[in-house]
Amino acid sequence: MPKSGQKPLLRALAGETVTPPPVWLMRQAGRYLPEYREVRGKVGGFLELCYTPELAVEVTLQPIRRYGFDAAILFSDILVIPDALGQNVRFEEGEGPKLDPIRDAAGLAQLRGGKMHERLAPVYETVRRLTQALPANVALIGFAGAPWTVATYMVEGGSSRDFARTRSWSLADPAGFARLIDIVADATAAYLCRQIEAGAEAVQLFDSWAGVLPDDAFQRWVTEPNARIVSAVKERFPDTPVIGFPRGAGVLYEHYAAQTGVDAVSLDTTVPLAWAAERLQPKVTVQGNLDPQVLLAGGAALNHRAREILAVLGHGPFIFNLGHGIIKETPPEHVDQLVHIVRGDG
Ligand code: CP3
Fold first, then answer.
1. Which pLDDT score is estimated for 3?
2. Cα angle at 56 between 55 and 59, to 5 degrees?
3. Ligand 1-lining residues (CB < 6 angstroms)
4. Which of 33, 148, 215, 325 stands 20 to 30 A from 209 (CA)?
5. Runs of H (alpha helix) within 68-114
C-alpha cells in the first residue's frame, strides 16, 4: 500500500510528519468513562474483563466511538503475563494489584510457561475481533509490560513506592534476578508475536518504572531486555513498529532510543519538548507527552499546553498522547476539548 494510503498512526510510526498528528491516549479505555464503569460492573474481577473477548472488545471500542482516536489500544493489562506464567494475580477494589510474591530461586521454579498461550487465548481472540470491528483509518496497538516493570510487581507482590525488594534482589543476586528478567522477556516476546499474528498493527512496551534505576542498572534491566524483545519481534515481523515507553528515563531516553531498535519512544511528562525535538525526533518518532493533570484541569491550561506541544513536536514524526495514563477523575469533555485542539478545529 502506498504510504499515503496508510493509517495516520502507521505513517507517523514509519517516520512521516503527519499534519494534524495522529492522537490516542494511554489508558483511554477506563474508569473516567461511564460506559466503561457500566461494563466493569458486570464482571467480578478485573482479569475476567481482560479474558472475556466480547467485553474486552466493547471497552476497547468505547473511546474510539466517543472521540474518533487514530488508534485503539487492546484492552488488557501488563499483569496478564505473571498470571499466565502461573503466579497468583488479583485486583482488589481500590487497592490495585496483589500477587503472591516471588523472591528467590524457589519462587522462580514455580513459574510455568507451558500453558501461557492457552491462558492468553482470549486476549488473542479479542485482537482478532477488533481487526474486524475497527473503522478503516484506526490502527490497532497491542502491548505488554517490559520485564523490569513486570518484575517489580512479581517481586514486591503489588505496587510499591521504593521497589526495595526488587532492587535488593537484583543487587545481591544479579544472576538469579536475571533469570526472572529472562523468563519475562521470553514470555513477552512470544506474547507480542501472537498479538501481531492476530492482527495488532503496532505494539507498545510499557516500562513504567524504568526511571528508578541508576544508569548501569538501567542498561542491564531496561535497555538490554527491551532490545532483546524488539529484536525477537522484528525477526518475525520486521514491518511491525514498536513503541518503547521507558518512563522517567530522563537523558537516558536518547541511549534507549539508539540501542533498543524501537521505532518510536513515548515521552513522559518530564521530558523537555525542545530537547526531544532536537535529540530524539531526528532518529525516532516521538509520542507524548501532555501531563494527565493538565487534561484533568482542562480549560486554559489544557489549551495552552496542548498547543505548545504541537508547536514544538508537530514539525517532525509525532503522535499526540499523554505522558502517562489518563486519571480516572478526568471529565470526559476535557478529552473532547483536547482532540479538537489537536485536529485544529478547537
Ligand atoms: O486503555 C488502555 O490503555 C488499555 C488498557 C491498559 C490497562 N492497563 C487497563 C487497566 C493498559 C495499557 C494498562 C497498562 C498497565 N497496567 C501499566 C503500564 C502503564 C502505566 O500506567 O504505568 C501498569 C503499571 C499496569 C498495572 C496495573 N493495572 C495497576 C497498577 C492497576 C491498578 C491501578 C489502577 O489504576 O487501578 C491496574 C488496573 C487497570 N488496568 C485498570 C485498567 C482500566 C483499572 C482497574 C479496574 O477497572 O477495575
1. 54
2. 85
3. 26-31, 40, 46, 73, 75, 77-79, 91, 96-97, 143, 159, 206, 208, 325
4. 33
5. 80-84, 105-108
